[in-house]
Amino acid sequence: MEISRDLIHEDDLQTTERATGGGSGDEGSKAAGMRGTVHEMDFFAMKESSRPPTSTRMDRARVPDLNLNKEVDLAMNIGLQVVTPARDQAPMSPVGNKSVEIELIGLNIIGMIEKLEEMREELAGAKEENRRLRESLSDVADKYGSLRAHFMKLLQERGGGKLHQVEDEVTRRSHQLEEEEGGSTVARQFIDLRPALSAKEESHNTELSTDDQDNSAHTNLDAGEMEVAASQPKTTQQQQQSPDHEATMKKARVSVRARSEARMINDGCHWRKYGQKIAKGNSCPRAYYRCTMADGCPVRKQVQRCAEDRSVLITTYEGTHNHPLPPAAAAMARTTSAAVSMLLSGSTSTADQPLLGSNSLLAKRTLPLSSASVAMISSSAPFPTISLDLTGVPNSLPQWRPSTNIDPFRVLPFSNGVAPSLASFGHHDQQSHFSGLQMSTSCLTAGDEGGATSELLPMKPHPSGPRSLAETVSAATAAVADDPNFTAVLSAAISSFMNREGDGRE
DNA sequence: CGGATTTGACCTGCGC
DNA sequence: GCGCAGGTCAAATCCG
Protein backbone atom coordinates (compact mmCIF):
# COMPACT_ATOMS: atom_id res chain seq x y z
CA MET A 1 0.00 0.00 0.00
CA GLU A 2 1.37 3.35 -1.01
CA ILE A 3 0.56 6.60 0.62
CA SER A 4 0.40 9.56 -1.66
CA ARG A 5 1.81 12.93 -0.67
CA ASP A 6 -1.61 14.27 -1.46
CA LEU A 7 -2.79 12.76 1.75
CA ILE A 8 -0.35 14.82 3.69
CA HIS A 9 -1.95 17.78 5.30
CA GLU A 10 -0.65 20.72 7.15
CA ASP A 11 -1.61 19.30 10.51
CA ASP A 12 0.50 16.29 9.68
CA LEU A 13 3.47 18.49 9.12
CA GLN A 14 2.85 20.36 12.30
CA THR A 15 2.52 17.12 14.14
CA THR A 16 5.79 16.00 12.67
CA GLU A 17 7.51 19.23 13.51
CA ARG A 18 6.31 19.07 17.06
CA ALA A 19 7.43 15.52 17.32
CA THR A 20 10.82 16.31 15.90
CA GLY A 21 11.41 19.54 17.71
CA GLY A 22 11.72 21.21 14.34
CA GLY A 23 9.46 23.73 12.75
CA SER A 24 11.54 26.72 13.56
CA GLY A 25 14.03 28.40 11.37
CA ASP A 26 15.09 27.49 7.87
CA GLU A 27 15.08 24.26 5.98
CA GLY A 28 18.41 23.35 7.29
CA SER A 29 17.38 23.46 10.89
CA LYS A 30 14.19 21.68 10.00
CA ALA A 31 16.13 18.94 8.35
CA ALA A 32 18.46 18.81 11.29
CA GLY A 33 15.51 18.44 13.61
CA MET A 34 14.21 15.58 11.57
CA ARG A 35 17.59 13.96 11.56
CA GLY A 36 17.78 14.20 15.28
CA THR A 37 14.47 12.48 15.65
CA VAL A 38 15.57 9.57 13.55
CA HIS A 39 18.59 9.01 15.69
CA GLU A 40 16.68 9.41 18.87
CA MET A 41 13.98 6.92 18.06
CA ASP A 42 13.43 4.26 20.59
CA PHE A 43 13.24 1.02 18.67
CA PHE A 44 12.90 -1.10 21.73
CA ALA A 45 10.04 0.92 23.05
CA MET A 46 8.25 0.41 19.79
CA LYS A 47 9.03 -3.27 19.81
CA GLU A 48 7.47 -3.62 23.21
CA SER A 49 4.36 -1.74 22.28
CA SER A 50 1.39 -3.70 21.11
CA ARG A 51 -0.10 -1.80 18.26
CA PRO A 52 -1.92 -3.17 15.24
CA PRO A 53 0.18 -3.85 12.14
CA THR A 54 -1.10 -0.84 10.25
CA SER A 55 0.19 2.66 10.13
CA THR A 56 -1.71 4.55 7.54
CA ARG A 57 -3.59 7.79 8.02
CA MET A 58 -6.89 6.09 7.61
CA ASP A 59 -6.17 3.71 10.39
CA ARG A 60 -4.77 6.22 12.76
CA ALA A 61 -8.00 6.61 14.61
CA ARG A 62 -7.80 3.00 15.60
CA VAL A 63 -4.17 3.26 16.54
CA PRO A 64 -3.75 5.12 19.76
CA ASP A 65 0.04 4.91 19.74
CA LEU A 66 1.11 8.28 18.32
CA ASN A 67 4.77 7.48 18.16
CA LEU A 68 4.40 5.12 15.26
CA ASN A 69 2.04 7.40 13.45
CA LYS A 70 4.38 10.31 13.80
CA GLU A 71 7.10 8.38 12.17
CA VAL A 72 4.80 7.37 9.37
CA ASP A 73 3.77 10.95 8.96
CA LEU A 74 7.36 11.96 8.84
CA ALA A 75 8.01 9.40 6.17
CA MET A 76 5.06 10.64 4.21
CA ASN A 77 6.15 14.21 4.56
CA ILE A 78 9.47 13.58 2.98
CA GLY A 79 8.02 11.57 0.19
CA LEU A 80 8.65 8.03 1.31
CA GLN A 81 6.36 5.20 0.52
CA VAL A 82 5.00 3.64 3.65
CA VAL A 83 4.41 -0.02 3.20
CA THR A 84 2.08 -1.92 5.40
CA PRO A 85 0.75 -5.44 5.21
CA ALA A 86 -2.39 -5.89 3.21
CA ARG A 87 -5.53 -5.91 5.25
CA ASP A 88 -6.76 -9.14 3.79
CA GLN A 89 -3.65 -10.99 4.69
CA ALA A 90 -4.06 -13.83 7.07
CA PRO A 91 -3.63 -12.62 10.60
CA MET A 92 -0.23 -13.28 11.98
CA SER A 93 0.65 -14.28 15.43
CA PRO A 94 1.24 -11.42 17.84
CA VAL A 95 4.94 -12.14 17.80
CA GLY A 96 5.01 -12.30 14.02
CA ASN A 97 3.07 -9.07 13.79
CA LYS A 98 5.53 -7.22 15.91
CA SER A 99 8.43 -8.62 14.01
CA VAL A 100 7.08 -7.55 10.65
CA GLU A 101 6.14 -4.21 12.06
CA ILE A 102 9.57 -3.60 13.42
CA GLU A 103 11.16 -4.55 10.14
CA LEU A 104 8.90 -2.18 8.27
CA ILE A 105 9.62 0.62 10.62
CA GLY A 106 13.30 -0.06 10.36
CA LEU A 107 13.11 0.05 6.58
CA ASN A 108 11.20 3.28 6.70
CA ILE A 109 13.68 4.82 9.04
CA ILE A 110 16.56 3.84 6.81
CA GLY A 111 14.74 5.33 3.88
CA MET A 112 14.04 8.46 5.83
CA ILE A 113 17.66 8.83 6.75
CA GLU A 114 18.70 8.44 3.14
CA LYS A 115 16.10 10.90 2.04
CA LEU A 116 17.21 13.40 4.63
CA GLU A 117 20.78 13.02 3.54
CA GLU A 118 19.74 13.76 -0.03
CA MET A 119 17.84 16.82 1.08
CA ARG A 120 20.80 17.99 3.07
CA GLU A 121 23.09 17.65 0.09
CA GLU A 122 20.68 19.50 -2.15
CA LEU A 123 20.48 22.31 0.34
CA ALA A 124 24.23 22.52 0.60
CA GLY A 125 24.47 22.64 -3.18
CA ALA A 126 21.93 25.41 -3.42
CA LYS A 127 23.72 27.45 -0.80
CA GLU A 128 26.99 27.02 -2.61
CA GLU A 129 25.49 28.16 -5.86
CA ASN A 130 23.97 31.13 -4.12
CA ARG A 131 27.32 32.09 -2.72
CA ARG A 132 28.90 31.79 -6.16
CA LEU A 133 26.20 33.91 -7.75
CA ARG A 134 26.56 36.60 -5.15
CA GLU A 135 30.26 36.74 -5.75
CA SER A 136 29.61 36.96 -9.44
CA LEU A 137 27.17 39.77 -8.92
CA SER A 138 29.62 41.66 -6.80
CA ASP A 139 32.22 41.17 -9.47
CA VAL A 140 29.91 42.58 -12.09
CA ALA A 141 29.22 45.60 -9.95
CA ASP A 142 32.89 46.28 -9.48
CA LYS A 143 33.86 45.91 -13.07
CA TYR A 144 30.90 47.79 -14.33
CA GLY A 145 32.23 50.95 -12.76
CA SER A 146 35.45 50.78 -14.65
CA LEU A 147 33.74 49.96 -17.87
CA ARG A 148 31.34 52.80 -17.40
CA ALA A 149 34.06 55.35 -16.84
CA HIS A 150 35.94 54.14 -19.85
CA PHE A 151 32.82 54.30 -21.93
CA MET A 152 32.20 57.87 -20.86
CA LYS A 153 35.71 58.70 -21.89
CA LEU A 154 35.06 57.25 -25.28
CA LEU A 155 31.87 59.18 -25.57
CA GLN A 156 33.66 62.38 -24.79
CA GLU A 157 36.44 61.67 -27.20
CA ARG A 158 34.06 60.76 -29.96
CA GLY A 159 31.71 63.63 -29.42
CA GLY A 160 29.07 61.61 -27.69
CA GLY A 161 26.70 61.43 -30.58
CA LYS A 162 28.46 58.99 -32.82
CA LEU A 163 27.22 55.88 -31.26
CA HIS A 164 28.41 53.55 -33.96
CA GLN A 165 32.00 54.63 -33.45
CA VAL A 166 31.72 53.93 -29.78
CA GLU A 167 30.22 50.59 -30.56
CA ASP A 168 33.20 49.80 -32.71
CA GLU A 169 35.52 50.71 -29.91
CA VAL A 170 33.65 48.58 -27.43
CA THR A 171 33.60 45.74 -29.87
CA ARG A 172 37.30 46.10 -30.52
CA ARG A 173 37.95 46.02 -26.82
CA SER A 174 35.80 42.98 -26.42
CA HIS A 175 37.62 41.19 -29.20
CA GLN A 176 40.93 42.15 -27.73
CA LEU A 177 39.99 40.82 -24.36
CA GLU A 178 38.52 37.70 -25.82
CA GLU A 179 41.79 36.98 -27.55
CA GLU A 180 43.76 37.69 -24.42
CA GLU A 181 41.64 35.65 -22.10
CA GLY A 182 39.95 33.24 -24.39
CA GLY A 183 36.64 34.25 -22.88
CA SER A 184 33.75 32.24 -24.08
CA THR A 185 30.69 34.19 -23.23
CA VAL A 186 29.66 37.64 -24.16
CA ALA A 187 28.87 38.35 -20.57
CA ARG A 188 32.38 37.60 -19.55
CA GLN A 189 33.76 39.72 -22.33
CA PHE A 190 31.98 42.71 -20.96
CA ILE A 191 32.54 41.95 -17.37
CA ASP A 192 36.23 41.53 -17.86
CA LEU A 193 36.80 44.69 -19.77
CA ARG A 194 38.19 46.20 -16.65
CA PRO A 195 41.56 44.47 -16.77
CA ALA A 196 42.01 45.87 -20.23
CA LEU A 197 41.95 49.34 -18.86
CA SER A 198 45.28 50.83 -18.19
CA ALA A 199 46.22 52.39 -14.92
CA LYS A 200 46.14 55.71 -16.67
CA GLU A 201 42.62 55.09 -17.76
CA GLU A 202 41.71 54.07 -14.29
CA SER A 203 42.99 57.32 -12.92
CA HIS A 204 41.22 59.14 -15.67
CA ASN A 205 38.09 57.36 -14.67
CA THR A 206 38.36 58.88 -11.27
CA GLU A 207 38.58 62.29 -12.80
CA LEU A 208 35.77 61.52 -15.10
CA SER A 209 33.47 60.50 -12.34
CA THR A 210 33.35 64.05 -11.13
CA ASP A 211 32.81 65.43 -14.57
CA ASP A 212 30.21 62.86 -15.25
CA GLN A 213 28.20 64.02 -12.35
CA ASP A 214 28.24 67.52 -13.68
CA ASN A 215 27.59 66.65 -17.24
CA SER A 216 24.72 64.38 -16.58
CA ALA A 217 23.23 65.81 -13.49
CA HIS A 218 19.74 65.41 -14.68
CA THR A 219 20.15 61.79 -15.43
CA ASN A 220 22.33 60.77 -12.56
CA LEU A 221 19.38 60.70 -10.32
CA ASP A 222 17.65 58.66 -7.85
CA ALA A 223 13.98 59.03 -7.99
CA GLY A 224 13.77 61.78 -5.49
CA GLU A 225 16.50 63.81 -7.07
CA MET A 226 14.91 64.19 -10.43
CA GLU A 227 12.81 67.19 -9.74
CA VAL A 228 15.51 68.88 -7.77
CA ALA A 229 17.77 68.57 -10.74
CA ALA A 230 15.11 69.98 -12.97
CA SER A 231 15.36 73.26 -11.15
CA GLN A 232 19.12 73.30 -11.21
CA PRO A 233 21.24 74.75 -14.00
CA LYS A 234 20.87 72.61 -17.03
CA THR A 235 23.60 70.64 -18.61
CA THR A 236 25.05 71.63 -21.90
CA GLN A 237 22.90 69.20 -23.73
CA GLN A 238 19.85 70.16 -21.80
CA GLN A 239 20.42 73.78 -22.59
CA GLN A 240 20.54 72.86 -26.22
CA GLN A 241 17.27 71.11 -26.02
CA SER A 242 13.97 72.73 -26.68
CA PRO A 243 12.46 74.96 -23.98
CA ASP A 244 9.59 72.60 -23.44
CA HIS A 245 11.95 69.83 -22.53
CA GLU A 246 10.75 69.79 -18.94
CA ALA A 247 7.16 69.67 -19.96
CA THR A 248 7.93 66.82 -22.24
CA MET A 249 9.78 65.09 -19.44
CA LYS A 250 6.64 65.31 -17.36
CA LYS A 251 4.60 63.82 -20.12
CA ALA A 252 7.02 61.10 -21.04
CA ARG A 253 6.11 57.70 -19.71
CA VAL A 254 7.44 54.29 -19.09
CA SER A 255 5.17 51.36 -19.48
CA VAL A 256 5.84 47.98 -17.92
CA ARG A 257 4.10 44.92 -19.22
CA ALA A 258 4.14 41.93 -16.95
CA ARG A 259 2.11 38.86 -16.25
CA SER A 260 0.33 39.19 -12.99
CA GLU A 261 -2.82 37.90 -11.44
CA ALA A 262 -2.77 40.68 -8.92
CA ARG A 263 -4.52 43.95 -9.29
CA MET A 264 -1.27 45.79 -9.64
CA ILE A 265 2.39 45.10 -9.37
CA ASN A 266 4.29 45.78 -6.21
CA ASP A 267 6.84 48.43 -7.07
CA GLY A 268 7.65 49.47 -3.55
CA CYS A 269 5.61 52.67 -3.52
CA HIS A 270 2.31 53.46 -1.90
CA TRP A 271 -0.43 54.38 -4.30
CA ARG A 272 -3.89 55.78 -3.96
CA LYS A 273 -6.43 55.13 -6.59
CA TYR A 274 -8.15 58.25 -7.79
CA GLY A 275 -10.00 57.18 -10.86
CA GLN A 276 -10.98 54.48 -13.23
CA LYS A 277 -12.00 54.57 -16.85
CA ILE A 278 -12.92 52.25 -19.62
CA ALA A 279 -10.52 53.20 -22.32
CA LYS A 280 -11.44 52.88 -25.94
CA GLY A 281 -10.41 49.62 -27.49
CA ASN A 282 -10.00 47.79 -24.20
CA SER A 283 -12.90 46.44 -22.24
CA CYS A 284 -10.72 46.21 -19.16
CA PRO A 285 -10.94 49.33 -17.03
CA ARG A 286 -7.88 51.49 -16.62
CA ALA A 287 -7.14 52.47 -13.05
CA TYR A 288 -5.39 55.69 -12.12
CA TYR A 289 -3.11 55.82 -9.14
CA ARG A 290 -1.23 58.62 -7.43
CA CYS A 291 1.84 58.19 -5.27
CA THR A 292 0.98 58.82 -1.63
CA MET A 293 4.38 58.41 -0.09
CA ALA A 294 4.71 62.17 0.22
CA ASP A 295 2.42 65.14 -0.05
CA GLY A 296 2.45 66.58 -3.49
CA CYS A 297 4.35 63.78 -5.12
CA PRO A 298 3.55 64.18 -8.80
CA VAL A 299 4.09 60.59 -9.80
CA ARG A 300 1.10 58.80 -11.21
CA LYS A 301 0.57 55.51 -12.76
CA GLN A 302 -2.04 53.77 -14.80
CA VAL A 303 -2.78 50.10 -14.49
CA GLN A 304 -4.68 48.23 -17.11
CA ARG A 305 -4.95 44.69 -18.31
CA CYS A 306 -3.99 43.92 -21.84
CA ALA A 307 -6.98 43.52 -24.10
CA GLU A 308 -5.39 40.65 -26.00
CA ASP A 309 -4.07 38.81 -22.99
CA ARG A 310 -5.74 39.61 -19.74
CA SER A 311 -3.08 37.92 -17.76
CA VAL A 312 -0.79 40.75 -18.79
CA LEU A 313 -0.80 43.80 -16.59
CA ILE A 314 0.28 47.06 -18.16
CA THR A 315 1.58 49.63 -15.71
CA THR A 316 2.45 53.06 -17.00
CA TYR A 317 4.48 55.46 -14.87
CA GLU A 318 4.57 59.20 -15.30
CA GLY A 319 6.52 61.81 -13.39
CA THR A 320 9.26 61.70 -10.82
CA HIS A 321 9.05 61.28 -7.08
CA ASN A 322 9.83 64.21 -4.79
CA HIS A 323 10.76 62.06 -1.82
CA PRO A 324 13.14 59.28 -0.85
CA LEU A 325 12.10 55.86 -1.87
CA PRO A 326 12.74 52.38 -0.59
CA PRO A 327 15.38 50.57 -2.64
CA ALA A 328 13.04 48.61 -4.81
CA ALA A 329 10.88 51.62 -5.48
CA ALA A 330 13.90 53.79 -6.18
CA ALA A 331 15.09 51.31 -8.74
CA MET A 332 11.73 51.30 -10.37
CA ALA A 333 11.63 55.05 -10.38
CA ARG A 334 15.05 55.17 -11.96
CA THR A 335 13.61 53.07 -14.67
CA THR A 336 11.11 55.76 -15.40
CA SER A 337 13.42 58.70 -15.36
CA ALA A 338 16.24 56.94 -17.11
CA ALA A 339 14.09 55.46 -19.78
CA VAL A 340 12.48 58.80 -20.37
CA SER A 341 15.89 60.37 -20.62
CA MET A 342 16.91 57.79 -23.13
CA LEU A 343 13.80 58.21 -25.12
CA LEU A 344 13.94 61.97 -25.15
CA SER A 345 17.58 62.29 -25.88
CA GLY A 346 17.36 59.70 -28.58
CA SER A 347 14.20 60.97 -30.13
CA THR A 348 15.38 64.52 -30.41
CA SER A 349 17.64 63.57 -33.19
CA THR A 350 16.77 60.08 -34.28
CA ALA A 351 13.09 59.68 -33.80
CA ASP A 352 11.66 56.60 -35.43
CA GLN A 353 15.05 55.34 -36.30
CA PRO A 354 16.72 52.27 -35.00
CA LEU A 355 19.04 52.82 -32.10
CA LEU A 356 20.40 49.35 -32.20
CA GLY A 357 19.88 47.67 -35.47
CA SER A 358 20.70 44.11 -36.31
CA ASN A 359 23.79 45.40 -38.03
CA SER A 360 24.99 47.13 -34.96
CA LEU A 361 28.15 45.61 -33.73
CA LEU A 362 27.29 46.56 -30.22
CA ALA A 363 23.95 44.95 -30.61
CA LYS A 364 25.57 41.83 -31.87
CA ARG A 365 27.93 41.78 -28.97
CA THR A 366 25.27 42.32 -26.41
CA LEU A 367 22.33 40.63 -28.00
CA PRO A 368 23.66 37.28 -28.96
CA LEU A 369 20.31 35.63 -28.66
CA SER A 370 18.43 37.98 -30.87
CA SER A 371 20.56 38.97 -33.76
CA ALA A 372 17.56 40.15 -35.74
CA SER A 373 16.26 42.39 -33.00
CA VAL A 374 15.98 46.09 -33.58
CA ALA A 375 15.72 48.90 -31.09
CA MET A 376 13.41 51.67 -32.09
CA ILE A 377 12.34 54.93 -30.62
CA SER A 378 9.00 56.07 -31.79
CA SER A 379 7.56 59.53 -31.73
CA SER A 380 4.18 58.41 -32.93
CA ALA A 381 2.64 58.01 -29.49
CA PRO A 382 0.80 60.95 -27.91
CA PHE A 383 3.48 61.03 -25.25
CA PRO A 384 6.96 59.64 -25.55
CA THR A 385 6.59 56.19 -24.14
CA ILE A 386 8.85 53.27 -23.63
CA SER A 387 7.31 49.93 -23.00
CA LEU A 388 9.16 47.33 -20.99
CA ASP A 389 7.84 43.90 -21.71
CA LEU A 390 8.30 41.41 -18.89
CA THR A 391 5.67 39.02 -20.04
CA GLY A 392 8.26 36.36 -20.57
CA VAL A 393 7.56 35.05 -24.03
CA PRO A 394 9.15 31.59 -24.21
CA ASN A 395 12.80 31.73 -25.11
CA SER A 396 12.74 35.44 -25.00
CA LEU A 397 14.14 37.99 -22.65
CA PRO A 398 12.87 41.22 -21.21
CA GLN A 399 12.17 43.55 -24.02
CA TRP A 400 12.28 47.24 -24.46
CA ARG A 401 10.12 48.35 -27.21
CA PRO A 402 8.49 51.49 -28.43
CA SER A 403 4.94 52.30 -27.60
CA THR A 404 3.93 51.34 -31.08
CA ASN A 405 5.23 47.87 -30.41
CA ILE A 406 7.18 47.89 -33.62
CA ASP A 407 9.74 45.20 -33.83
CA PRO A 408 10.55 44.68 -30.19
CA PHE A 409 14.14 44.42 -29.24
CA ARG A 410 15.96 42.72 -26.51
CA VAL A 411 18.54 44.45 -24.50
CA LEU A 412 18.86 42.51 -21.33
CA PRO A 413 20.40 39.16 -21.98
CA PHE A 414 20.94 36.99 -19.00
CA SER A 415 24.26 35.36 -18.83
CA ASN A 416 24.67 31.77 -19.72
CA GLY A 417 25.05 30.95 -16.10
CA VAL A 418 21.83 32.49 -14.90
CA ALA A 419 19.22 31.70 -17.40
CA PRO A 420 15.61 32.41 -16.66
CA SER A 421 13.73 29.30 -15.85
CA LEU A 422 10.21 28.28 -15.20
CA ALA A 423 10.74 27.85 -11.52
CA SER A 424 7.72 29.00 -9.65
CA PHE A 425 8.21 32.21 -7.78
CA GLY A 426 5.81 34.72 -6.41
CA HIS A 427 3.31 35.70 -3.83
CA HIS A 428 -0.35 35.20 -3.74
CA ASP A 429 -1.02 38.31 -1.81
CA GLN A 430 -2.98 41.19 -3.17
CA GLN A 431 -0.10 42.31 -5.21
CA SER A 432 1.93 40.88 -7.91
CA HIS A 433 2.37 37.25 -8.65
CA PHE A 434 4.59 36.96 -11.63
CA SER A 435 4.79 33.91 -13.73
CA GLY A 436 6.08 35.28 -16.97
CA LEU A 437 9.75 35.77 -16.41
CA GLN A 438 11.11 33.94 -13.49
CA MET A 439 14.54 33.28 -12.31
CA SER A 440 15.90 29.98 -11.37
CA THR A 441 15.39 29.22 -7.75
CA SER A 442 19.04 28.51 -7.58
CA CYS A 443 19.57 32.21 -7.94
CA LEU A 444 17.94 32.77 -4.63
CA THR A 445 19.35 32.09 -1.31
CA ALA A 446 17.88 29.54 0.99
CA GLY A 447 16.10 32.25 2.84
CA ASP A 448 18.99 34.11 4.35
CA GLU A 449 19.99 36.68 1.80
CA GLY A 450 18.75 37.86 -1.54
CA GLY A 451 20.76 36.30 -4.27
CA ALA A 452 18.87 37.02 -7.41
CA THR A 453 21.51 37.75 -9.88
CA SER A 454 21.77 38.30 -13.51
CA GLU A 455 24.85 39.42 -15.24
CA LEU A 456 23.38 42.47 -16.78
CA LEU A 457 25.45 43.53 -19.67
CA PRO A 458 26.08 47.20 -19.69
CA MET A 459 25.74 48.53 -23.17
CA LYS A 460 25.99 52.00 -21.84
CA PRO A 461 27.75 53.18 -18.75
CA HIS A 462 25.98 55.01 -16.04
CA PRO A 463 27.41 58.36 -14.97
CA SER A 464 26.77 57.62 -11.38
CA GLY A 465 29.30 54.87 -11.45
CA PRO A 466 29.57 51.57 -9.71
CA ARG A 467 27.78 52.86 -6.71
CA SER A 468 24.65 53.17 -8.70
CA LEU A 469 24.81 49.64 -9.95
CA ALA A 470 25.76 48.38 -6.57
CA GLU A 471 22.86 50.21 -5.06
CA THR A 472 20.50 48.84 -7.57
CA VAL A 473 21.81 45.36 -7.16
CA SER A 474 21.60 45.84 -3.46
CA ALA A 475 18.09 47.05 -3.83
CA ALA A 476 17.24 44.06 -5.89
CA THR A 477 18.75 41.60 -3.51
CA ALA A 478 17.37 43.39 -0.52
CA ALA A 479 13.99 43.28 -2.09
CA VAL A 480 14.33 39.56 -2.48
CA ALA A 481 15.16 39.23 1.14
CA ASP A 482 12.55 41.59 2.45
CA ASP A 483 9.78 40.97 0.02
CA PRO A 484 10.20 38.06 -2.31
CA ASN A 485 7.96 39.67 -4.77
CA PHE A 486 9.99 39.21 -7.85
CA THR A 487 8.41 42.06 -9.68
CA ALA A 488 10.28 44.68 -7.83
CA VAL A 489 13.47 42.74 -8.02
CA LEU A 490 13.32 42.22 -11.71
CA SER A 491 12.28 45.77 -12.28
CA ALA A 492 15.16 46.93 -10.19
CA ALA A 493 17.59 44.91 -12.20
CA ILE A 494 16.19 46.12 -15.45
CA SER A 495 16.05 49.67 -14.24
CA SER A 496 19.70 49.40 -13.47
CA PHE A 497 20.34 48.54 -17.02
CA MET A 498 17.96 51.13 -18.35
CA ASN A 499 19.47 53.83 -16.27
CA ARG A 500 22.82 53.17 -17.83
CA GLU A 501 21.28 52.89 -21.22
CA GLY A 502 19.45 56.15 -20.90
CA ASP A 503 22.24 58.15 -19.37
CA GLY A 504 24.71 56.96 -21.89
CA ARG A 505 22.85 58.74 -24.60
CA GLU A 506 22.91 62.09 -22.88
C1' DC B 1 -13.43 56.52 12.47
C1' DG B 2 -9.99 57.14 9.14
C1' DG B 3 -8.09 55.67 4.99
C1' DA B 4 -8.91 53.49 0.60
C1' DT B 5 -11.92 52.63 -3.21
C1' DT B 6 -15.75 53.50 -6.30
C1' DT B 7 -18.06 56.08 -9.63
C1' DG B 8 -20.41 59.74 -11.96
C1' DA B 9 -19.46 64.41 -13.20
C1' DC B 10 -16.40 67.54 -14.95
C1' DC B 11 -12.25 69.31 -17.38
C1' DT B 12 -9.05 69.39 -21.22
C1' DG B 13 -6.95 68.47 -25.54
C1' DC B 14 -7.47 67.10 -30.14
C1' DG B 15 -9.45 66.06 -34.63
C1' DC B 16 -12.95 67.09 -37.81
C1' DG C 1 -17.77 74.83 -32.50
C1' DC C 2 -18.73 70.18 -31.59
C1' DG C 3 -17.95 65.58 -30.25
C1' DC C 4 -14.95 62.22 -28.48
C1' DA C 5 -11.66 60.21 -25.48
C1' DG C 6 -8.45 60.54 -21.84
C1' DG C 7 -7.65 62.22 -17.43
C1' DT C 8 -9.04 64.20 -12.88
C1' DC C 9 -12.07 65.52 -9.10
C1' DA C 10 -14.76 64.69 -5.23
C1' DA C 11 -18.74 62.86 -2.88
C1' DA C 12 -20.38 58.46 -1.64
C1' DT C 13 -19.29 54.11 -0.14
C1' DC C 14 -16.60 50.41 1.69
C1' DC C 15 -13.67 48.24 4.94
C1' DG C 16 -10.55 47.12 8.67
Low-confidence stretches: 1-92, 180-250, 347-380, 394-489, 492-506
C-alpha-based Rg, rounded: 29 Å
Question: Strand order of the main beta sheet, please?
Answer: 2-3-4-5-1-8-9-10
Structural class: alpha+beta
Indicate the proportion of strand residues: 5-15%
Q: Give a short account of the largest sheet.
A: 8 strands, mixed
Shape, per Cα inertia axes: extended
Number of strands: 12
The H-and-E topology, N to C, reads as HHHHHHHHHHHEEEEEHEHEEEEEEHH
Helix content: 40-55%
The count of helical stretches stands at: 15
Tell me the span between the first and last alpha carbons.
Answer: 70 Å
Organism: Zingiber officinale
Main location: nucleus
GO molecular function, one term: DNA-binding transcription factor activity
Keywords: Coiled coil, DNA-binding, Nucleus, Transcription, Transcription regulation
